[in-house]
Each structure stands twice: as structure tokens, then as C-alpha cells.
Amino acid sequence: MGIKSSLHQLKEKFKGNTFAPAFNAFHTFLYTPNDVTKGGTHIKVADDLKRTMNMVILSLVPCLLFGIFNTGYQHFAAVDAANGIIREASLLGNFITWENFLLGSTKVLPLVIVSYVVGLTVEFIFAVIKGHEVEEGYLVTGMLVPLIVPVDLPLWMLTVAVIFGVIIGKEVFGGTGMNILNPALTIRAFLFFAYPTWMSGDKVWVHQAMDRTGTAEAISGETILGSFAQNQEIIYSLSDMFIGFIPGSVGETSKILIILGALFLIFTKIGSWRIMLSTIAGALFMGLIFNQVVDLGWITETSKFYGLMSVPFWEHLLIGSILFGAVFMATDPVTAAQTLKGKWIYGFLIGFISIMIRVFNPAYPEGVFLAILLMNVFAPTIDHYVIQSNVKKRLNRIKLKTI
Amino acid sequence: MSKDIIVKKGLNINLVGDATKTLEISKNSKYYSVYPEDFHGVFPKLTIKADEKVKAGDVLFYDKNNEKVKFVSPVSGKITEIQRGERRRIVSIEILADNKIEYKNLGNLDAKADKNKIIDYLLNAGLWPFIKQRPYDVIADHKISPKSIFISGFSSAPLSADLDFISKGYEDKIQIAINFLSKLTDGEIHMSVRKNSNSELSNLKNVVIHNVSGPHPSGNVGTLINKVSPVNKGEVVWTISLQDLILIGSVVESGKFSAERIIALVGSSVENPRYIKTLIGSQMLTILDKGIQDENRIISGNVLTGKQISIKGHLDYYSNTVSVIPEGNDYDLFGWTRPIFDKISASRALTFSWLLPNKKFSLNTNTNGEHRAFVITGSYEEVFPLDIYPMRILKACMYKDLEEMEALGMYEVAPEDFALTEFVCVSKQPHQDIIRKGLDLMKKELG
To answer: DSSP readout, B231-255?
Structure first.
């Protein structure tokens, strides 16, 4: 008797049982079930939600791997810098090295594991309580969360935040497909407001920067955004920013890998290119406005806003997490606008507001996640007005008839 | 007069088992059955009893809600069984057919007959059930005259009968039916034909011909309605399918209810897909080849909108297609992540049907995944050509907001318009069922 038929018998045995959803969640990972169509169309497309979500995870894997190496690299680079040695990053020379990987994986993999184990446990419990199947939504959320936090975040904080995020951000609304706010960003927002010292500032973005503060071996943990916000000089080259040899949240630094992920999502028709494109357009537009303000001399070098306002508008895409947000966060289909026109508006406003927050809030210059959460709230409103035009068209048809 | 319509959104589903254009006469069926559930929303009230003799064209039952709408026997013979289900609901009426069919004389319809005469004739001859209406996609209400009548002259659904083929030689019957129907509407009769198909149907008179191009659902009558003249609140349009026009035409001409019908026997489980001339209500066994077993699904209708029937079942009242495809009652190891070449997909998520646009697929009935909440957006719009927001209207139906359903265009749609969105749905939601229930609710609440 093969594994297939023994699992089939187990499934039949569990049917109707309280823990059937939990068993099925594991079973369906091994085998797509033997369900056949009943009523309606007798045939169905090959895709299911698992496959769709899996594509998003696949597109994130390069960012995760890069994040592991970068964690190690940034740590050793900062240690060197503290000793007066300036490193020149090179991919095969000092980036993809065993010691970077070792350090990085011991820091990053626990984040991934905690994120998945805690989040999925909450999902399983809710599935069992409510008696529905375990939905796949968290598979993506669980992957996103470790990529958007600082590397030294204590695991217990992550645990608390994930529980909060999944329950408040998702389950209270009715689970996958019903939530208003992006769950990964809800988790990040919770961390940000509950533990601000661990989530922002110039000491959290490089491994051990926090621990070594005040000691003889102190190292810098500042991001480019932070430096700009304080009108400091930037020590990273554009190519470093593009490839990702810069400090930041675990998986957000490599722009080229984010772009590759975006292309993959667009090609597979899973990510909305409309949202990605319009978010970038919105960011560039706001950046251009600020550049104009600086060019016109309304803001001078003495202003605290000068640093970020004078960044050439296109460079905004290379710093911070605007690109990561545009590709992987703003495009979450449940919390984004759902109409085609709505997606353009929604994305544009995310980009626009992200850069606005970035410039006007030097204490915490990364505005992307706040902008996305804000637009999550307004997405239904945007959709409502887009749909109203369709409704009005229908009403006008009658009016024309009666005249 | 002819006009062009270009349908851009949609999806052609290429399947193995298209019928070759050869016609075969089926064996005579011993028993015939009529299923009242084929007539959605009808409450059948029987006019016959078991063991009674009937002629072809004799009334079997009428609709309790509208007693003038009668349903007649397709053959002559003896009523052998009236099968009932839960709460004494009538499931089927079975007739043991005579060797030679005796017809009730239904009389002729004068070409100069006026509107009321025509309606009375169609009602009494049991032809009225072939006329459907929107809103609600039910048998038309004869008391309300429609703003126009729509007929689809070609089919774009996967493995469905070629309407040019089944109407060949019956153009005069179609014309007769159209001539009478044109007196029942103040507007016009609209018919779609596939652009550049040189269909004989383009030569019909008293109809506006629309040359439609584009992928499925370009051949759906709902698509034609939406592109020509969508149904507004308070308006009614009628729809009739081509094979039923042929039937109406021949009954009107001969005065006999001859339930003859050409069907396409199709699907990857059919050895020799072809056209078969048979009668409404025939036993499936007389249509299907030997060797078709339980591991196949037999569908009266096409694979997107048809009704599953057992091998002992009968051809339903409306279909022009019988599809047979394999059941998909099996597990698929890592089916959610392995690359897929042998199934159709609307995405490119390691599914490769986009590389093979001309390949014919052999799909089974597996759902390819479990039922989930609505998550993905934008994919329905790719295959949905109507000027309606599909996901919105589905959700409005699910939470039963009548006002919103109305505002979003519920009067314009029928379940079959949502067959493609249901096919591509990664959450495996039952779109057609959701729309059907929504329409029923609206009909009940708003009339």
C-alpha cells in the first residue's frame, strides 16, 4: 500500500473531526486533493491558491538569500570601519563568503522560523476553532515578515508581534481574504510602535550595533535614509545601493533582486504591474516636486528637510524600502484596490505619500509601510468611486431611454 | 443589415474530442424522461397520472406560478413512472414510447396571425418553455413584451455543437420561427454569427445580424446582449437558442410536436465524437457508445455550463451537446507546485499552457485545488467581456445586498456569463451557483 492510499484512508478517517483542517493542511501540501467539480463548470484551471502564493514565495527567496549574506557582510564591514578599514564590496570577493553566510543564517533563519511557526500555529488554531480549511495567506506573510525587520530584533518581540498581527490584522476580520490591512505590515507597525528603539534609529540595522554601543568596539548601524535625514554625507555608491551592499531591513536592500522578483511576478501574472508601476510613478513625482522646491531655493541647506529633499528624485527608489514595498506589499490583492482603475490611483498615492513621509519625518524616515497601511484603509473607498462610475453609466442608460 | 462586434476579453478552451461533421441517427430509445428541474423556477403541476397514455405534444404538467405555461411529452406512449424526491418534488416523468410516434394535432399557425394568437399557440403547443427571458434567466413571462429578442448563431464554448452544422438544411424552419417571433417584440431580433464564417444564418431576414469576433464567451447570448443593448431595470429581453428555433419552426409548420434534435457527442472520453440525431428525453444509453463507464463524467450540455447526468439518465430539454470527460478523482503529488504542461491555466505560474496556444487538452473533473475565499483580483476581468465588475457582483450576491446587486447590473446577467470566471478562479468559488442564487433572490424579493 503506497503512501497515497494510506493518506487517503487517514483523511477519510479524520473527516468531520475537529482536527481535520490541521491534517488536511499537511496532506494537501503533499498531494493536491482528489476533489472533483460539483455543479458549475466541470473543468477548472490548473492553478489554485497554493500555487499562486508559492510563486510569491519563490520570488522572495533571492531577497532572503541575499539578506543572509548581507547581514554577515554589514556586520564585518562595520567592524572593519570602526577599526579604520574601509571595505570595497565585491560580490565574489568579500560578500559571498562562508563567514558571512554563517553569521547571517544564524541571525536570519531564526526570524524566518519564528515567523512561520508562530503565525501558522495561530492560523491552525483559528482553522480548527472555526472548522474551515487552513488558508494559504500566511505563507506569504510569514516570508515577508523576517525580510522587513532589523536583524537583531529579539525573537520574543517577533512572536508577540506575529500573534498580534495575525489575530488583529486578519482573523478578527474573518481570515484570509477579508482583512483590511496588510498582515505583514500590521506586524511591522506593531513592532514599530511597541518597541521603537528596536525598530528605528542608527543602531539597529547592523548586527551587534546595538550591543556594542558605548563600548570600545562600537560600530555604526545607520542606514542611508538615516544619514540623509541628518544631512550627513553618504558613504555608499549608487551601485552598492542598487546591488544591495547597504545596511537596512533584512531582505529589502538589494534593488536588483527586488526587480527580478517583480519581473517574475508580472510574468506569472500574479503581481499587479499596475500597482508596481504606479507606486514608482507616485514616488518619482513626489521626488520631483521636492527637487523643484530645492531648485527654487525655497528650502536652504540649513533646513532639516534639505538632505532628503535634495536627493535626486530617482535616487529615492534606491534607498529605503520603497521598491520592496511597491513590489511585494502594495500588491497584496486582498488589501489593495481591486478594480483596474483603482489600482492605478492606489499605487500612485502610495508612492506619493511614501516620499512625503520620508522627507517630512526625519525622526523615522521610512514612510513606505505607513503609506501602504494608510492606502489599505482607503482602498475600498477608491474602489467604491471607480465602481460608482459603472453604476452611474447604468443609471444614465435608463435616463436616456426615458427622455 | 449587419454590424460588427469585437470581443477582446475571454479565453478559448481547446479540448480534445471535438465532433467531426458527420451525422448519425441514434437508436430508438425505449423510455423517455422529462425532468421538471430543467425548467428553472417552475413549480410543476401534473396533468397526467401514471399508466396514462399520452401522444407527442400532450401536456404533462404546467407551471403552478403561471398556469398557461405548459410542458408537453416529446413522444407518445404510456407514462410508466413519476419519480419523486424530497418533499414529493417531481424528479422525472418517464414514458414508455410507442413503436410509432402518434402526434397530437396542434393545428397550424397562420402566417398572418396576430401577437395574441401566436402567444396562445406557442403556450398551448408546449413551445413556450423554449423562450427564456432576462432578467433572471428563466422561462419568459408571456404577459410582458420584450424590448428585443436575442439569438446566438454560433457557439464559442469548449466542445459545443457547431450551430452552422446543426442548422444546415433547417434555415427555412428558422426563418418561419423568426417571422412569428418578430411580431412578439416592439424592437428587433438580434442574432450573432462568427465574423468571416460565411454562415448561412447571415441570410436570414427580419433579424439584425451581428458579426462577432473574439474568444469565448463571444458566442454567448449574454455577451451579445451586453454589447448591443444591455437590460435596464424594468426592461425584459428574450433569448432563444438556435436548436429550439428549429423545433419551433417545424412544429408551427407541421402542427406536430416533433422533439427531434441534433446533438454533438463530444469529449476526450468519446472514441468517435460526432453529431447524432435523436429526440429530447432520449436515454443516454442510446446516444453513448459502449464502454463509457462510471469513471467518466457524462454531461448534458457543454463542460462549462452543462448538467451532470448518470449513464442511466436522459437528454435534457435544452441541450445540443453531450460531453463525456474523465473524472479526476485522484491525488496529484505536489500538484500545487510542480510545473504543469497538461492542464490549462490562465496564468504562467509554472503552468505552461500559454506556450501551447494551439494544443488541445484533455482535462478531467479534478478541481486542482481546494475551495478558498476570494483573494486574487484582476484575473476575472481578463476573461469577462461584459461591462460589469464580476467580483463585486459575486460578492454582492453572497451578502445578499439587493440594492447593490441591482446597481451592479444583475438584471443583465445569467449564470452562464460567469462560467469562464468560475473556470479560471484560483479560489475555486462556484460563481454560476452564486449568480443563480442571487437571481432567484432578486426574483423573489423584487418580482
So the answer is: PPTT--EEE--HHHHHHHHHHHHHS
Chain A residue numbers touching B331 (CB-CB < 8 A): 4, 7-8, 31-34
Contacts of B433 in chain A (CB under 8 A): 39-40
**Model confidence, pTM:** 0.92
> Which of A42, A46, A177 is closest, CB to CB, to B297?
A42
Assess whether B238 and B289 both reside in one domain. no
Closest to B371 (Cα-Cα) out of B441, B328, B428: B428
Beta carbon pairs, A and B, within 8 Å: 216
Which chain B residue has the Cα nearest residue A44?
B423
pLDDT of residue B132: 95
Interface probe, candidates A4, A5, A45, A139, chain B, greatest B C-beta count within 10 A:
A45
CA distances to A17, A149, A315, A326, B127 from A165, in Å: 28, 14, 32, 20, 61
pLDDT recorded at residue B2? 66
Mean pLDDT, residues B204-217 taken together: 93
Is residue B302 in a domain? yes
| Distance, CA of B53 to CA of A261 (rounded, Å) | 72
User: Which grid coordinates are listed for B60?
Assistant: 404533462
- Which of B337, B378, B425 lies at the smallest CB-CB distance from A54? B337
Determine the Cα–Cα distance for residues B156 and B223; give it in Å rounded to an integer: 11
| B70 and B35 housed in the same domain | yes
* Neighbour-count burial of B222, counting CB atoms closer than 10 A to its CB (0-12 exposed, 13-18 middle, 19+ buried): buried
pLDDT in tens, A51-72: 999 999 999 999 999 999 999 9
CA-based nearest residue to B335, from B360, B303, B370:
B370
Phi/psi for B185 (5° steps) reads -125, 145
Closest chain A residue to the Cα of B403, Cα to Cα: A391
CA B232, B234, B239, B245 dihedral sign is negative
User: A183-231 pLDDT, tens per residue?
Assistant: 999 999 999 889 888 887 777 888 887 777 777 777 777 787 777 777 7
Whether residues B390 and B284 fall in one domain: no
Residues B250 and B287 in one domain: no
pLDDT, residue A386, reads 95
Number of domains in chain B: 4
Q: Residue A163 forms beta bridges with which residues?
A: none
B-chain residues within 8 Å CB-CB of A4?
331, 333
Residues of chain A with pLDDT under 70: 1, 362-365, 402-403
Q: Name the nearest CA neighbour of B411 among B140, B133, B200.
A: B133
Asked whether the beta carbons of B349 and A269 are under 8 A apart, the reply is: yes
Residue B362 lies in a domain: no
Selecting from A51, A390, A397 the residue whose C-beta is nearest the C-beta of B336 gives: A51
* Residues in chain B within 8 Å Cβ distance of A133: 370-372
Shortest distance between the Cα of B423 and any Cα of chain A, in A, equals 5
CATH number at residue B223: 3.40.50
Which of B350, B361, B372, B423 to probe by mutation at the A interface, max A CB count within 10 Å? B372
**Residues from chain B contacting residue A55 (CB–CB below 8 Å):** 349-350
Rg of chain B on CA atoms, in Å = 21
The reported pLDDT for the residue numbered B137 is 94
SS (HEC) of A157-211: HHHHHHHHHHHHHCHHHCCCCCCCCCHHHHHHHHHHHHCHHHHCCCCCCCCCCCC
E strand or H helix at A295? helix A273-295
pLDDT above 90: percentage of residues in chain B: 79
- What does the pLDDT read at residue A209? 79
Task: Decide which of B235, B254, B273 is a domain's last residue.
Answer: B254
Residue spans per domain, chain A: 46-260, 272-403
Which positions in chain B touch A277 (Cβ < 8 Å)?
Answer: none
* CA nearest to B346 within chain A: A45
Q: How far apart are CA B35 and CA B55, in angstroms?
A: 18
Residue at B343 is within a domain: no
